[in-house]
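During the second year of the project, the team shifted from modelling isolated chains to modelling whole assemblies. The rationale, set out in the original proposal, was that interfaces cannot be judged from single-chain predictions alone. As a representative example for this report, we include one of the complexes processed in the last quarter. Its constituent sequences, exactly as entered into the pipeline, are reproduced here:
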Amino acid sequence: MTVPYEHLREDFKILQQHVNDEPLVYLDNAATTQKPEAVLKALETYYHTSNANVHRGVHTLAERATTQYEGAREKVRRFINAPSTAEVLFTRGTTTSLNWVARSLGDLIIEEGDEIVISFMEHHSNIIPWQQLAKRKGAKLKYIELTDDGKLDMDDAREKITEQTKIVSLVHVSNVLGVVNPIRELTDYVHDKGGVMVVDGAQAVPHMPVDVQALDADFYAFSGHKMMAPTGIGVLYGKRKWLEKMEPLEFGGEMIDFVELQDSTWKELPWKFEAGTPNIAGAIGLGAAIDYLENIGMREIMNHEQNLVAYLMPKLEEIEGLTLFGPKKASDRTGVISFNIDGVHPHDVATAMDMEGVAVRAGHHCAQPLMNYLNQPATARASFYLYNTVAEADKFVDALKATKEFFLHGLD
Amino acid sequence: MALTKLDQLYRAVILDHSQHPRRRGVLDKATTQIELKNPTCGDVIQVQLTVEDDKITDVRFDGSGCTISMASASMMTDTILNKSVDEALMLVNEFSEVVQGNKPEHEQALGDAMMLAGVSKFPARIKCATLSWKALEKALGSDGTGVDGQLTHD
Ligand SMILES: Cc1ncc(COP(=O)(O)O)c(C=O)c1O
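Output from the structure prediction step:
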């Protein structure tokens, strides 16, 4: 099925506006995505008909809210092909998910002298929790190098991951380079050495089919807001064999079975990790977003983005003085394109593009070690999604050329 | 086309200062110096001063950043050279008013820096304009050399 794009854009009212007197071209989808009417409607319907606390009441609304909240969990399970809903934890987002793993799994298995391996292309949320863990335990944090075209250096990966490596945590798709990493291959290697594989899927799940069993990862984290769901909801998938041994990080209501004066017992999975009233509406919104994405098809979404990238790359490569980061081949990547114009600071680029109605991001993209590695103080980044069109890709290229002209030669 | 609006922000004077910065470099005998970073965008600036008898007799800046931050630093050195410490501190406050869209009392004394008034219409860029002035303020408030600083979040 091909996506009916003109029709599809009607689902996103926010995209039908002018910014600085120009039609909005929203290309900051790696930061967060826009929400379709179906998701907004699901939130409204929930609050209009079913709002109550979950797992707590026998009355009708409580039952409805619980059914819908757990129904959303089942949708997530199916979407990523997790073996069971016991292994699907709702969190605040990728950051929380990764912090939970670093804290709880880290406390369980990391000892002084152990190694933790990440890479130079990680987002801060997949760096700092491991730094903290390494400091807490006296463990060693190692970084896998990148190749010149912005891929993981697999030779270096095989060197860095050793029998001393207890945890490897890698990004599935880089939020700067757009590169898709060979997770299954890496997971097999990590397991071979006896380590645990954690995957930051924040930029993968929204853009391509993801099957956690096919990847065989031990943990997989992602955020709802980057896949058309509201902010404040995310997922941590974890293999039951680990989650069962891990201690919860938060304690309180919802997560307990029996509370006595000096001790308590935890609920079974997944609830033992979900203390307090959860983001019920957020989970239901995530369920609605999954319905929306599945209706179009994840393979279709991936193809659409790769087609846009394949269309754009030659046009961008033609622009003199434009440096592109990450692999050039569309099939190696998603719709994230980072670039710099020689002699023009990315912040000036982003301001100028904004005047043309084109929303791009400039900065370090929460990846300071990667910026240092690329020897760039910052980059500009355009990130495409399902609702972006070829016409918008053209507008992006035009705005980029005009921006370059303006800063290098001034207005005529 | 919409880029014409950019002229409000990137006036010719500003582009000129960023392309041909005044007093960019290093002083042989600075009496005070500071490095300031803007962690959100990776900009970094060093400001060096020679203060003699309460007067700024020489100033240099160096660093990397966007057009606005580099132009602003260049303009700042024009504005404060040969001013007393108190005057310079007063001008830092005046400049901060200007970039927030307010009218300063000492427009003349600010010189080219007045051209950055357009920044007030680009709220995301105000910090770019104020980085070097914040560095100056910190340097003047410190008593020695080699002080490190970081722009704090508002
Ligand atoms: C690769 C990657 N990891 C982690 C995150 C953090 O996600 P969140 O801010 O939703 O927790 C992001 C998003 O900024 C990301 O792009």
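The pocket of pyridoxal-5'-phosphate is lined by residues A 30, 93-95, 123, 125-126, 171, 175, 200, 202-203, 223, 366 (CB under 6 Å). Residues 41 and 124 of chain B are 11 Å apart (CA to CA).
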